[in-house]
Amino acid sequence: MTSVAPSPRYAPAEYDPAPYDPTTEPFDFPATGLGPSIRSRLTLASDLVLRRRKPKLVYAAVVILGVMAIVVTQLLLSVGLSNGAYQIESLQTQQKTIDRSNADLQEKLDSLSSPQNLAASAQSLGMVSNSNPVYLRLSDGAVLGTPKAATAGSGTFTGGQSSLVPPAATTPATPATSPAAATAAGATAVGATAAGATAAGTTPAATTPGAPAAAATDPTVPWQGDLPSPTTH
Amino acid sequence: MTSARSTRNRIAFAIIVITAIVAVLVVRLVDIQVVQADSLNQQAYSTLSVPLSIYGARGDIVDANGTVLATTVIKYTITASPVDVADFTPLDPKTGAAEALVTPVQAAAEIGAITGQTADAVYALLTADKTSSYALIIKDVSLDQYNAVKALQIPWLYYETDPQRVYPNGSVAGNLVGYMGTDTTGAVTGTGGLEAEENQCLAGSDGEQTYEKGADGVAIPNTLVVNKQPVTGGTVVTTIDSDLQYYAQQVLAQRVSSTGAQWGSVVVEEVKTGKLLAVAQYPTADPNNLDATDPNYWGAIAFSDPFEPGSTFKSESAAALIDAGKATPATQVLTPYKYTAPGGSVITDSEVHDPAPYTLTGVIQQSSNVGISILSAMLTTQQRYDYMKKFHLGEATEVNFPGESEGILGDPNKWDEQTLYNSSFGQGVTTTAAQIASIYQTLGNGGVRMPVQLVSGCKQSDGTVTDVPASQGEQVVSASAAEQTVNMMQSVVEGGYAADSLKIPGYNVAAKTGTAEVSNGEGAYGGGYLTSVAGVAPAESPQYVVSVNIMKPVTVEDGSASAPVFQKIMSQVLQKYRVLPSTVPAVDYPTSY
């Protein structure tokens, strides 16, 4: 079984084209390529040949227009592409700038949210922690522990002493403003608002900058909504 | 006839000449297109192409709540080309109109005003070598400074970016996160603390890409090829709570300073899981500025510096006695001030007293060396050593911190007569602070020791967490032995010498003080004391371990030096983690008979 007869599909076709014979088919030869000897012998056909050539002007026009269209398209495409390259370049630069400023802001945020800076800010704002926790058991409403007010000296997070854990050496800390400064800033802001509103003629004249400032120092915060539920850890 | 021949000759000559020229051209063409093709292409490509390194960022180290302890930021390096330094005319960024001419001296002053250098210093850098095309102006400036300098539009300045490791929390956990350095090949890598231990997780790898640029430096479209993708490093998630760590460092620093001590360490561990919530020490280095701190304190001394623990070790001895069935909290022992052991070694208590009828609870409360020595003799040396091994003493903890010490137990068969007894109250053997905390974690957790955990995993950039440590506990002593030992330690807080500074209102606390003699380094004692407190709370259902060690305090020389630190930190832990106050009275075993 080593030799297999070639499949008929691939066998040389038993087709033997008859050689072209101008004498048997005198009017069907192609318009070009058979040389002047034939044409000179068959002068009667020359008109026919000329008539057949005429539509080729249209073909030529189509071809030329097509080539021009392709060239123009190619040109526009490459102009578009290189424009796109410039646009991509500018957008990438923009993205890089934004990424950088994002990273920079993140770095500042990380630094400001470090425990040292938070403790210092809280302290400079006059906040104290109560080291005497009292729990309200929700199941029966029992109060566990004895409530005791936090005092300014003992109640600070660091026990009234200055921080012995300095903030990171890389970035200068910018703790929150002191309560006095904050109040002053608040008063200024309120004053400015009041002045602006008065100028617009919509606020009663009784508004004084001093009164809202006094209210701003009141530490109690009114409850809004439900009682807070304990955070589960 | 002659004209025909001359014509043929001319034609022949022309053909020969043309053939020769064509031949030369063909040879040259083949030479260029085939023979030299590769090297010429290479030359062309190297002129056109711009290789770019894509930075693969090193991962962050974060605490249990995601607060960043270590991260990488981009800093900017400004360089100049002194050979090009000349007057220039900046353009108004809005209108594009030319502004006044700026001389190099003026430019130097403007640069200096932004970077904080003096004008003269900058000008000196620019003019040091006027033929050079490179001069470093300043390294690692911030984005704001970089933008400000760039806005000066100085044409002969160049800018480079430089990734830098920063530690936003400074010395908070600075002992744990470690620091960067260079390896033997000069590459930047983690060389201390978690930066070193977790280097494999943290390290990213840079990628590479190339593009071809046109005459104006803009990339030619479709020529960007990424040869290698960059890999961002993973995030190391620790079990540390940075707020608690800060508080512990703050309280410890105050106490170490006020007692004139050499150093101190605090370990806070979660009883149920073995997770370390804080590993504080004083002094602590700020990894951003290591040089400000003595190199001895760059690492975590809670892992690296073993010491003879002293009386906090008595809890281990008592738990072993109860677990082996040799004693109960009520076991009686008549305790003299001075005891001469059968082998001839002499043990004394810290203060002179008449022979006292202590129970084992009383021995723990009064921290009697004699009492625990007499009782421990009921166990063989090998048994006692085996218990120490079961508590994983004499071996590094599972944290495997860089430079971690195993502590020294020695060979129990070679313990001398004195060490046979001393080891029952924590002299003659050494442990690290982490090992002491682990003993108390075991006792608080019903005798089940959990592997000590500092890192809870490596979070890859795709969010998966790998390298999660084992969390399989191991029963060291029976649950009842552990519970009885904890209950006995409540007597220390109720009536021990430091009781007043150990009590936490509302909670039952179980703790043990310690005042260990420190070796003077020459085989004898006399180098001062290591004072310590270790304990758990709430005693009826322990949740947290706090272990405080203060080395060589001057103003107070016993456990009272550490007690206020323990009290404050334990209070903060109980408050922070919302542990409800105890509703049962403290267990009150009899201390004498």
Would you mind describing this structure in some detail?
- The complex is a heterodimer of chains A (233) and B (593).
- Chain A is mainly α and 233 residues long.
- Chain A contains six helices and two strands.
- In chain A, strands 1-2 form a two-stranded antiparallel sheet.
- In chain A, a hairpin with a 6-residue loop joins strand 1 (135-136) and strand 2 (143-144).
- In chain A, helix 5 (179-200) packs across helix 6 (210-216).
- Chain B has 593 residues and is α+β, with helices and mostly antiparallel strands.
- Chain B has two domains: 74-166, Penicillin-binding protein 2a (Domain 2) (Alpha-Beta Complex), CATH 3.90.1310.10; 242-576, DD-peptidase/beta-lactamase superfamily (Beta-lactamase, 3-Layer(aba) Sandwich), CATH 3.40.710.
- In chain B, strands 2, 3, 4, 5, 10, 18 and 19 form a seven-stranded mixed beta sheet that branches. In chain B, strands 12-11-23-22-21 form a five-stranded antiparallel beta sheet, sandwiched between helices. In chain B, strands 1-8-9 form a three-stranded antiparallel beta sheet.
- In chain B, strand 21 and strand 22 (525-537) form a beta hairpin.
- In chain B, 45% of the residues are buried.
- The mean pLDDT of chain B is 89.
- At the A-B interface, helix 3 and helix 4 of A face strand 3, helix 9 and helix 19 of B.
